[in-house]
Amino acid sequence: MPVGVPIPWPSEIPPDGWLKCNGEVFDTVRYPKLALAYPSGRLPDLRGEFIRGWDDDRGVDSNRQVLSWQADRTKKIQLAEGNGGNYLALYQGPLDKLLYPIGRDAIGRATENSIANNTGGDETHPRNIAFNYIVRAA
């Protein structure tokens, strides 16, 4: 495995010869191969973060550089009533204006200012398991 590749490690303590990806500075003289991957001498801080593939001009996640950080975001979901309030209309992306029949008692009256129920979290994220990202130091 090349030096500098982050791998998920199932323990809080990395094995000998490995460093945590916790944003700390490392000695570029002591670890010259690691410095080739991270010339700034600082490892990425992957604590609590998801790794996302670089867009590389694909157009899905434009205007980002390799190793750049991105804040959380939730795609806009707009609720509106349709057909006398008996339908819930979701307006989002290419599948615009889908109507889902629901009973009026299910939500009362939907308006463009309606808010969908949430699970009480501070961010939107998929289910996941926490690993400790580490890199080989050389």
Automatic annotation (TrEMBL):
Phage tail collar domain span: 4-51
InterPro entries in UniProt: Phage_tail_collar_dom, Phage_tail_collar_dom_sf, Phage_Tail_Fiber_Structural
Name of the featured protein: Phage tail collar domain-containing protein
Species: Xenorhabdus khoisanae
Species classification: Bacteria, Pseudomonadati, Pseudomonadota, Gammaproteobacteria, Enterobacterales
